[in-house]
From TrEMBL:
Name of the protein this chain belongs to: Ribokinase
Catalytic residues in the record: D238 (proton acceptor)
Binding site for K(+): D232, T234, Q268, R271, G273
Species the sequence originates in: Roseinatronobacter thiooxidans
Record keyword Metal-binding present: yes
Amino acid sequence: MTVWCFGSINIDHFYWLAHLPAPGETLAASAYRTEFGGKGANQSVAAARAGAPVRHLGAVGADGARALAALAADGVVCDGIQQVEGPTGHAVILLDHQGENSIIIEPGANRAMALAPVLAALEQAELDDILLLQNETAFQPEIAEAAMGRGMEVIYSAAPFEIAAVRAVLPYVNTLVMNAVEAAQLRAALDTPFEDLPVETVVITRGAEGASWHARGTPDIVVPALPTQVVDTTGAGDCFTGALAAALSMGALPEDAMQFAAAAAAIQVSRHGTAAAMPTRAEIEALIHERG
């Protein structure tokens, strides 16, 4: 079973600060680094390092060669990635010493791609393949609808949260993944219990409080976060979602897949970076074994 990811590819610019700036405040960074990321690329790398075969669908600009090389180095199949005019998407990520962040995104190529090549690539997908998607690209509803029509399992991260985007995609989603803040935003916007949403499963991540799986007709699954030294929370949700998809694609039961994803996220937040910080399957299994 293949994990397909239709998602963003960004160049991430990291700035380390004593604290996150207040309105009108100017701060000097103590360190600066660039690496490739984007919610889509992060999830693709997380799933690939966790052991799944992964194909990425998306777009880069003329400056995207480094990002493509990094994805390919992790075993992600990149023949569905378009090169468009203009720049690759980028993100400015501000980090404090507790690992908390503020992020600004310029979508670039992620919103400039063409729809037809993505739909054509999806024609190679097989029944029960998994599609991951998020809110940093164009055409999420169209791609989700096409994937569901092919019998794929659609896992949608409602981030960055935009209620109009969520409304458009939800009819074509099997599993909705949100963090606690996004879940509260969705509940407030729709005034609808999660069990009444048109999805089979809702997964909510809660950082240090763990994560939960809510599926119709089955008991809820709650997994604790594994204790770890947090140095950078950027990309933690993407790590969790990519690892969850990888585990499910390899036949894991939901509870085992959730524990696998929680272990992956625990490792990822103990490192600096986004895609580069994603753990391997061996590292995840070793942590699970160590913690019993």
